[in-house]
Amino acid sequence: MTTVRAAARELLRSRGVTTVFGNPGSTELPFLQDFPADFRYVLGLQEAVVVGMADGYAQATGTTALVNLHTAPGVGNAMGAIVTAAANHTPMVVTAGQQVRAMMTMEALLTNVDATALPRPAVKWAYEPPRAQDVPAALARAFHIAETAPRGPVFLSLPMDDWDVELDEAAERAARHAAVRRVHDLTAADRPCVEALARRLEAAVNPVLVTGGSVDAEGAWSAAVALAERRQLPVWASPVEGRVGFPENHPLYQGVLPPAIGPLARTLAGHDLVLVVGAPVFRYYPYVPGPLLAEGCELVLLTSDPGEAARAPVGDALVAGLRPTLELLAELVDKRGDAVPARPARCAVEVPEADGEPMSAAIALAAVASAAPEDTVWVNESPSNLQLFRDHVRVDRPDSFLMTTGGGLGFGLAAAVGAQLGRPERPVVALVGDGSAQYAITALWTAAAYRVPVTFVVPANREYAILKWFGRFENTPGVPGLDLPGLDLCSLARGYGVPAHRATDPAHLAELVGAATAGAEGPVLIEAPVTTVPPTL
Prior knowledge:
alpha/beta, 6-stranded parallel β-sheet
């Protein structure tokens, strides 16, 4: 007879999910026993790193990642990363072991006492099957929920003695049905609604398009470009987005909107219609009061996330799949004849001259940009240098930029490893601050152990520079704990088995990046000591 374990593995195979990210504990061993040769287990040394790697993998591949954690303590360790995955709209099935059913009532050691409550509210769904026979159906449901809009992580608690239970004929038949079911979620907005939006775009004197990360995640990049070109719409990127939704070297691209109420409204002043696609309205921080929109400006949001539509503080909203709706909208609008003035084209980035020791962050980022290959997948977790990064690196193709949208740290190192595992044919460069790197430093071990050829570039300023900027902005002097003396990233990397170098000047930094991204032997870390350049709104 078929066991729950065998039925679950067949379900995973049917979905192409044969990579498991995990950190095993005793309650997970029954799931992992006799691990199949056609599966791959990616070990992380700490649970938040495990989820971060799965996040990067899922985003890079466009598939749902499978995570296996250790009962309540493992889920607790992973919660920050699960919050990040939820903010990123990352499809992910997070499983955790549970004590045997016979000892759950007495709350024996390693019982996850309230298993479904622990990961909430970060997950879309949390469940513990009432019977062992229900595990395959619960897994199938978890994948369906994770993959339908709004995509995000879900959670399953699975008792450790369920895996050896044998399925009777009816239960086995139910497991087979669960394995082959698929749920498709590509619905376009109702045609009359799209026609009405097309008329509003045509009637507007000076409309503008704002794109978010979901444009990239939902495969709507080309449709957004087609709409912008047909109506000659200037295009802004929504603030604090984890992906890029429009080619940043396109003549219609204007830049990234500021993430504060007053400055954002001022930036869009003069436009009478703002069409926001695939982003919330908006990710604001810090608080800079002002009108949400300038006088005479209207807004329409197109999103696949009903929550984003409901909580938007201004404007109308359509809830539908982005790609089919944008494709229909581009067909319906008339072609506009007069062209919007193009943003000046950017010259090729060259290796800059040294401007002191240590280098300025701007000089260092220009050097990195000059040496990285054109098809690089960029992962960014250097908050104080993000604006400089966007100035020097123009993402010009889909699936080429990843950043957390959750506001926490710990994403960068781990996500870069997962992204490279998912897209081994493309170079991955992770730009991670020296403070940010400490939240997921053990990801370096996984990169070394699995020979994952990520190029980690650490602009090291020996402080939490972004927090010092916020301290000045918010007028909160005398805050402790913002300096990070004594960190030696190269020594840390070598301790985990990653070759490491410290760049001495821009030319040396460019040389190191070029050599690291050209190789495929494994990871390399490059530390670049930099001065601090405060961001601006």
